[in-house]
Amino acid sequence: MRTVLITGASSGIGAACAEVLAIEGNYRLLLCARREEKLKNLKTKLEQLQPTLQIHTFILDVRNSDDVEKSITSLPDEWKNIDVLINNAGLSQGLDAIQDGDFGDWDRMIDTNIKGLLYVTKIVTPLLKKSSQAHIINIGSIAGKEVYPNGNVYCATKHAVDALNKAMRIDLLPYGIKVTAINPGMVETEFSEVRFKGDKEKAKNVYTGLTPLSGYDIAETISFVLSRPAHVNINDLLIMPTAQANGTIVNRKN
Ligand code: NDP
Ligand code: 8X3
After folding, report:
1. How much distance in Å is there from the Cα of 141 to the middle of ligand 2?
2. Which of 61, 108, 174, 212 fits 188 for a cystine, CB–CB 3.0-4.6 Å?
3. How far is the CA of 176 from the centre of ligand 1 (A)?
4. What is the number of the ligand 1 atom nearest to the C-alpha of 108?
């Protein structure tokens, strides 16, 4: 049974991954995020869905390197045998032209999406090295493949994830650690609400007139990626709603 650590598991893609993997019954789940209540509720739900599930949750802000190190090195011994790391925690803040951007927004995106992913990866890698089925899955984005108007810093952070994904595959090759990038287009989660700082109306409009992906669409793909035989690694996937051609062109029905 493989143990999977999912960052940003309290909502959206991370929570959907937890649910899909829990239902499969072949994984032990280590879930973290900043919002304790959400994690507790998710744990209760998953234990009801899968009564044999082994699950451990803990609070973690991936931006704090000391906390990342402490919380992972102080995991109970039975939770230190991590096989899979899903680097999912991430966010967008604001959608402004570069000259109008907010320093705080930029810091939050860079600190979470790039530095947080790096901190967690560095601290978890020694544990992954001990696994015979080690795998890192990095959640990138279409925004890491293309740039769209006003996406500037968010796109830059996801381009960094794209680069780090390739770099990890090289550096971790000698240890047999698989590295996969999952790059979604529009997924309806809390993402847009966070980007627009709680403006639910604005967030909803992002998905008006089209069927976006759901967190489950991404989670099912990750489940497939994880189920490949030992000699197969899926390097990089770009997954879009049918109604989205690229970072800027979508087909909305009135
Ligand atoms: P959500 O906002 O629903 O989920 C984001 C998750 O990240 C939450 O669980 C949040 O938990 C966690 N998180 C944010 N900041 C931190 C932090 N500092 N420390 C720890 N956890 C944190 O959005 P998604 O599920 O959509 O986003 C998941 C990933 O998918 C992100 O990396 C995003 O960039 C990427 N993505 C999303 C797309 C979309 O259209 N939705 C498309 C392409 C990629 P909490 O607030 O409790 O800490
Ligand atoms: C999130 C999707 O299109 O807003 O990464 O960049 S998008």
Report:
1. 6
2. 212
3. 28
4. 18
Question: Which residue carries 């847009």 as its tokens?
Answer: 192
The amino acid sitting at 27 is Y
Would you say the CB of residue 15 lies under 6 angstroms from ligand 2?
no
For 77: left if phi > 0, alpha if psi spans -120 to 50, otherwise beta; the answer is: alpha
Order of strands across the sheet that contains 2-7: 55-59, 27-33, 2-7, 84-87, 135-139, 178-184, 236-239
- Please list the pLDDT of the chain residue by residue as tens digits (254 residues): 999 999 999 999 999 999 999 999 999 999 999 999 999 999 999 999 999 999 999 999 999 999 999 999 999 999 999 999 999 999 999 999 999 999 999 999 999 999 999 999 999 999 999 999 999 999 999 999 999 999 999 999 999 999 999 999 999 999 999 999 999 999 999 999 999 999 999 999 999 999 999 999 999 999 999 999 999 999 999 999 999 999 999 999 97
* All structural domains of the chain with their residue ranges: 2-239
Q: Whose CA is nearest to atom 18 of ligand 1?
A: 61
Superfamily of domain 2-239: NAD(P)-binding Rossmann-like Domain (3.40.50.720)
Report the length, in residues, of the chain.
Answer: 254
**Helix, strand or coil for residue 108?**
helix
Q: Which atom of ligand 2 has the smallest separation from the CA of 186?
A: 2
From the CA of 61, the nearest ligand is 1
Residue ranges in 81-151 assigned as alpha helix (H)? 103-109, 117-128
